[in-house]
Amino acid sequence: MALYALLAAFAILYLLPIYVLALTGLKSYAEVNLYRMWDWPAHVSLDSFVKAWVGSEAQGFRGLDNNFWNSVRLAVPATLLSAALGSLNGYVLAKWRFRGSDAIFTLLLFGMFIPYQSILIPLVQVLNRMGLYGSLQGLIFVHVVYGIPITTLIFRNYYATVPNELVEAATIDGSGILGIFRYVMVPISLPAFAVVAIWQFTSIWNDFLFGVIVTPRPAVQPITVALNNLAGSYIVEWNVQMAGALLAALPTMLLYIVLGRYFMRGLLAGSLKA
Amino acid sequence: MSERVRAQIASPAASRVRRRRVVTADRLIAVLLIAPSAAAIAVFVYGFIGFTAFASFTKWDNLSPDFTWVGWKNYAALFNTVRFQIDLGNTVTFTLLFLAICLSVGFALAVLLDRGIRGESFFRSIYLFPLALSFIVTGVVWRWLLNPGSVQLGTTGVNLLLERIGLGVLKTGWYTDPRIGIKAVVIAAVWQMSGYVMAMYLAGLRGIPEELREAARVDGANDLQVYRSIIVPLLHPITLGAIIILGHISLKIFDLVVAMTGPGPGFSSDVPAFFMFDTTFRGNNFAQGAGIAMILLLMVAVLIVPYLVYSLRTETQR
Questions:
Q1: How confident is the model at residue A271, as a pLDDT?
Q2: Chain B residue with Cα closest to A177
Q3: Fewer Cβ neighbours under 10 Å: the N or C end of chain A?
Q4: Which of residues 289 through 308 in chain B touch A, CB cutoff 8 A?
């Protein structure tokens, strides 16, 4: 019994911030008062969500609707491209090793841990030259490139568990490297695709640093950058900020609730020991 | 001695024929498939790091690049800058507290959950849940939770809650108090990341065979002794992994500080990553920003490189 009490106490602590987030978002303007932060709303109202979503011309701040869709248009294609690239790389590094391929793998992996501050200055210059600076395409490109290490790692570890005999048998049957990938590996790698897709979608959706550096224009920015601007503004009420935070959190929260199992595996893959 | 070497000694000609067959189109395609990614990483990671390193030795301190070589001058100036000294101190404080609390909380939760309780997956999902959020969302929420309110208008946030449940003595100024500063950010970071450590430990605990514990119990060890002398030592690799992952996150911490506190009073919650962002992209002092970035990279490399080499070496031995 004491065990359950302890677990429940921890659960309450972990849920408290979410409770405040939801509670505040649901209060009407009349009830929003910092000193009644922990009180239940007398009337449930969705006003704050509407205001966070569409903004307010009178107060002069933008809503998050546009930025929410920017994040969708960013995270979905970047995730798909990352997964495609990672699966090819992982396949080669697990099943078609050549002299130097392990060295390449190690060098790729280090890219996963670097502080991105150490590449931001030339990144901005190069994106500018490529005509990608300030655009959503530029941001997609950046996420795909810096997603190579983690996606390659997850797929390599997954393909390493596939028996070599399977590949050899297909070779004897006359399949080439691409045929084996397409007809043997891809059909059995759905779990790896799910793990990578969830991992990449979550990290791209939640990213702030690349967004704030690569897209200075508010109309192009992903939702995390817009939320930070909204929350840093003194004209935006507290409850609208909280409602905005909940809107920004919604997609990854839903993903976590629906596909938590794969989420978990991606996390453990991040520690190299999948 | 490998098969191939032995075969070569026995019959060099036969081996040459076999190798010719192996270097077929497929081998070439394999290299070609990996080439774009390898090239991208070579340029966008290693090339860019090289450029940043170069820029940190130049005079580039405004919008137009000035590549006049100044040697170690930027680094010397940086270590004499009060803000940077405070930042390094904050990084050490943050990293030590964050690691210590995350590891203890994560381990405690994993041990509690490992006792075969009902509703385990329910509790596990709750503890892991903050991990799905962005540091920006976490920062926005905790900024308001740890907002102490004001003397004139009254108490708010966690302080108000403490007051209501009769723990008013624990009220503090949180991140508005320069003596607390970055330690308030630790609270939010632990809330977000401790579930991760729990998940790692739980996976580790599940990998320990029940017979080992049984054997120890038969030998008369009590629960505490079983943990101390059997389980904790077996979990050392996981502890190491967790330290590496959390450690590199905490050295790089940026988003959470931006959204939650900013640099704070007297830079009490400032970190090197934020200083780098500030001086480079707001102050256009590119050389100084590059210098901070290189120091950050060095700190992360000291942590990561030995671990990477070690894990890959043990993997090939397996």
A1: 55
A2: B26
A3: N
A4: 289-290, 292-294, 296-297, 300, 304-305, 308
**Locate tokens 């490998």: which residue?**
B2
- Choose among A195, A132, A116, A145: nearest CA to B289: A116
CB atoms under 10 Å from CB of A110, counted, come to: 18
Which stretches of chain B score pLDDT less than 50?
1-20
What is the rounded CA–CA span in Å between residue B51 and residue A117? Answer: 12
* Mean pLDDT to the nearest integer, A5-17: 92
Which residues, numbered 1 to 30 in chain A, qualify as contacts with chain B under a Cβ-Cβ cut-off of 8 Å? Answer: 3-4, 6-7, 10-11, 14-18, 20-21
Give me the residue spans of the domains in chain A.
2-64+241-245, 65-228+251-269
Which among B42, B61, B290, B39 has a CA at the least distance from the CA of A118? B290
- pLDDT, one tens digit per residue, over B130-148 is 999 999 999 999 998 998 8
| Each residue's pLDDT tens digit, B198-237 | 999 998 998 888 888 888 888 888 888 888 888 999 999 8
Distance from B259 to chain A by nearest Cα, in Å? 6
The CATH class given to the A65-228+251-269 domain equals mainly alpha
The pLDDT tens digits for A40-49 are 888 888 888 9
- Taking an 8 Å cut-off on Cβ atoms, the answer to whether A242 and B144 are in contact is yes
Arch. (CATH architecture) of B73-317: Orthogonal Bundle (1.10)
Least Cα distance to A110 among B248, B131, B33, B53 occurs for B248
